[in-house]
Structures
1.
Amino acid sequence: MRSLALLTIVSLLSVGALAQTPAANSTPPGNAETGKKLFVQYGCYQCHGYAAHGGAGPRLAPRPLTFAALSQYIRQPKGEMPPYTTKVLSEQQLADVYAFLRSVPEPPSVDSIPLLKSN
Ligand code: HEC
């Protein structure tokens, strides 16, 4: 009985620790619907695809990089991607884009597509 109580406390503590990771704290709230429109309006889709699954540019979703990394990259890209300064795309708009990226569902597993089943 005592070990069960201890287990409960330990799991509550770890949930608390997860909720306080820096990434979770530094992610500003955004609107995924608006972000989806911005993703098209600002041409991200031309290189990254409508569902951000990648094209000429890499796959961005699902499981996007952290907001901080996204923001840093967008403002000062290192490769062929054009930069998007805060004058072009505000922090709030970027937060909306990020909310959209986070809303993109996982693609179906290969096994759930009958045509692609190996046997
Ligand atoms: C002209 C094509 C193009 C457009 C438009 C474009 N990207 Fe990119 N993006 C790229 C390419 C190519 C890369 C790969 C690295 C490089 O060459 O800069 C990249 C890399 C990235 C990365 C880094 C990915 C990683 O895993 O490191 C992010 C994030 C990103 N793009 C987001 C965006 C967003 C958001 C927009 C719209 C605001 C956008 N991109 C518009 C071509 C584009």
Note: The radius of gyration is 19 Å.
2.
Amino acid sequence: MKTKLAYLALTAIFAGSAYAATSAVDEDFMRNIEDTFKSADSAIGLKDAKTATADAKELEKLFAEVVDHYVKKGDAEEGVKLSEKSVALSKQIVVTVAAKDFDSAAAASAELGRACKSCHNVYKQD
Ligand code: HEC
């Protein structure tokens, strides 16, 4: 009986750590990405370079974590590809905003919006 309880406890711990290892991309995390993305996109429209840059830099960091998540997950080529693309597009927003090229920044932001949807089509269950 005691052994069985110990076994159950261990199973729970392992299940917990497996969850922790793959939980980077969860609802809270994604809601943060969505808020930051919307803020960046509207700042680009308003030609608010300061906010757009801060948000795009934040998105770069967040999507780097998403890359990490899909690399660790394994067998998730599309997830790695789309999150790397999202990092690159966030970077492109930073660079184009720095050059005051808000049209190119808006184009990068629109493409980023499409990358969200592509990844959700593959990995997000409703
Ligand atoms: C590389 C994959 C990937 C990319 C890129 C991605 N997402 Fe997600 N997103 C997911 C996955 C997986 C979920 C489901 C998470 C869950 O429910 O645990 C999700 C869920 C969401 C949700 C729903 C959260 C909820 O309340 O259930 C929102 C909102 C969201 N993403 C916004 C975005 C936005 C905005 C972008 C782009 C700026 C984006 N995502 C880019 C993978 C991605």
Note: Residues 25-27, 30-31, 33-34, 37, 66, 79, 82-83, 86, 112, 115-116, 119-120, 123-124 surround heme C (CB under 6 Å).
